[in-house]
Amino acid sequence: MIDFERLAAWMDESGLPGKGDPIETQLLSGGTQNEIYLISRGDERCVIRIPPSFAPADRDQGILREWRIVHALDGSDVPHTRAVAVCEDASVVGRPFYLMGFVDGWSPMGRTSWPAPFDADLEARAGLGYQLAEGIALLSKVDWQARGLQGLGRPENFHDRQVDRWTSFFENVKTRELDGMDVASAWLRTHKPIDYIPGLMHGDYQFANVMFNDGAPAQLAAIVDWEMGTVGDPKLDLGWMIQSWPTDTMAPEASEATYVDLRGMPSRGEVLAHYAEVSGRQVDDIDYYCILAKWKLAIVLEKGFARAGDDEKLLAFGPIISATMRSAADLAETTDYGR
């Protein structure tokens, strides 16, 4: 449990707004990676992100990596949470942490339906998809070197490392074979993007990790949750975002394609065109990124499946993982890219 009075004292010592006011807190979310609390002091509000007490020691460095990205984004065009302060001293409240600005908006995560007017107005809903694509298009334009993010990742030979790294990861966690793994892996070894321009990437870009302003028109308020952030290939964020995007977003099955209802969203081609226009990057090689994204997603999900043992819910989830890998293999076998 965080000693919030000690946190308030540290905030006062650091000269942050709200000095002397009582501290009020509200748990926003908690998990194995971070605990997130809203901090209120008078009229001032911010959010603390801190690893839970039981998290592995390497999460301390992880939280500081997140801070580097959030801090580097200040002053950029990327919708983001404001960087407030960081504390590397674990003796203050038990773990390193950082404070970021509070975003007064809404997240698609954990909802059963879109909020008004996006629940009924499909034209307005389309804006959510365009804004989602625009977020990473703007992120791809960030001058990561000028913003001091050297050493955040290893952009050199980024694509050359992917198959070996993730195959090794899979071998360490697997409890079964996945149909299509060999096909997709072999394809990725022999194909590369048309061009590779290193840049800042989120690493888990999807509706679950953004926030929107209230009301229409749709406006992205902030990209959040930077646990997987690195310097690599920003177009992998695009592949991750659209790897399960339905071809026909007006079809009934678009409501079941993912955890959000994609009916009324822009088509796959419209999303790609908007990303290309804003980012200035070509998207002719998007099949490569979709294959890589599907392949990686199946491997990541398989880790959770392996840990779940015989849990009934996750056993039912197993076929979805298999289908994701098979989809990567099918796309690899049918795409004209690189031929």
Task: Give your account of this protein's structure.
With 339 residues, this protein is α+β, with helices and mostly antiparallel strands. The protein has two domains: 4-101, Phosphorylase Kinase, domain 1; 122-334, Aminoglycoside 3'-phosphotransferase, Chain: A, domain 2 (Alpha-Beta Complex). The chain has nine helices and nine strands. The protein has helices at 4-13, 59-73, 122-140, 158-173, 181-190, 235-242, 268-279, 286-308, 312-334, and strands at residues 24-30, 35-41, 44-50, 83-87, 97-101, 199-201, 210-212, 220-223, 230-232. Strands 1-2-3-5-4 form a five-stranded antiparallel β-sheet, covered by helices on one side. The protein is globular, with a radius of gyration of 21 Å. The chain starts with a helix and ends in a 5-residue tail after the last helix.
What descriptive keywords fit this protein?
339 residues, alpha+beta, 2 domains, Aminoglycoside 3'-phosphotransferase, Chain: A, domain 2, 9 strands, Phosphorylase Kinase, domain 1, 5-stranded antiparallel beta sheet
Derived structural class: alpha+beta
The Cα radius of gyration reads 21 Å
Overall helicity: 40-55%
Read across the widest sheet, the strand sequence of neighbours is 1-2-3-5-4
Report the biggest beta sheet as strand number plus sense, adding barrel if it closes: 5 strands, antiparallel
End-to-end CA span: 57 Å
And the CATH topology of the largest domain? Aminoglycoside 3'-phosphotransferase, Chain: A, domain 2
Please provide the count of β strands.
9
CATH superfamily of the largest domain: Aminoglycoside phosphotransferase (APH), C-terminal lobe
Number of domains: 2
Tally of separate helices: 9
Low-pLDDT stretches: none
CATH architecture of the largest domain: Alpha-Beta Complex
Q: What's the CATH class label of the largest domain?
A: Alpha Beta
Q: What overall geometry do the principal axes of the alpha carbons give?
A: globular
Order of helices and strands: HEEEHEEHHHEEEEHHHH
